[in-house]
């Protein structure tokens, strides 16, 4: 998979519990709760292909692409059945899109007007990121978008933003959800660029985690130290982890500046594998089932998310176990004008390599 020399990587972290009294919408980046649908989307709640149980909503990411006129939301679901944990077949990722005109049409149809907050789409794309795309990649996305049917000619066609908590008060549409599907506690997701992590906070917590890793894996790691530039440096002695997996060692090194990250976003960038992937991993990622275009890596869920996935119902006990979940989406982000059904994309679940040590 071709990537740019410099990839913009966005880091998502937990930013507090979502108050049940506050409404969220399709533009809210969040953990857990129920999915918030784009105005025209109808969702038949997904079920596990292994045990046929309803899947629980894990994360919602609002991620419109540069040079595209579409609002764009991705929702990830997983099965909480212990027998299905760690298996890609028990997860599903859905991509939904719609145009500004679709939202306006819905406003006209509603008895109670649909109102956006004072911040419009164009207000927050002037100084935003380009989601890690180089010029060539942006041109390809722009060409693909131009070829897709579109009724929108608004000034918001160049949508280029970072993940953020931009809440637009939505309507009352909700997913067609079985009443017995477990619901995870809900948290906001905030974002920063990985390049800004130097000096993010003091290194005591990170060094503690490194010491624990060192004791567990038998690998010698020197402490992270802040340098004069405000960025952190880490030095690693050559050694072999107990499980012999260099990918895991590299993974730990990469996230050490912010172990609490729950998500890494880099459209068409490089995934961070927690265990050595198969040599044919690129061939394993299937092409888009709708337009036939190759899929590109978009984001991944990180180990710190596991501890946040507990039941919203205090009387029940649910959880998920995984190392990382890699999400791949259609390079063209294809969408049929007028469609009301989400597009299923592709994901790979990698288990935590430490889990096998206890089996």
Which assembly state applies to the chains in this document? single chain
Number of helices: 5
Give me the side-by-side strand order of the main sheet. Answer: 12-5-4-3-2-6-1-9-10-11-13
Distance between the termini: 35 Å
- SSE string, helix = H, strand = E? EEEEEHHEHEEHEHEEEE
Strand content: 15-25%
Instruction: Give the strand tally.
Output: 13
Taking pLDDT < 50 over at least 5 consecutive residues as the criterion, the unreliable ranges are 1-5, 111-135, 144-176, 222-240
Helix content: 10-25%
Structural class: alpha+beta
Could you say which overall geometry the principal axes of the C-alpha atoms support? globular
Radius of gyration: 21 Å
- Major sheet, described briefly? 11 strands, antiparallel
What attributes characterize this protein structure?
eleven-stranded antiparallel β-sheet, 5 helices, alpha+beta, 359 residues, two-stranded antiparallel ribbon, disordered N terminus
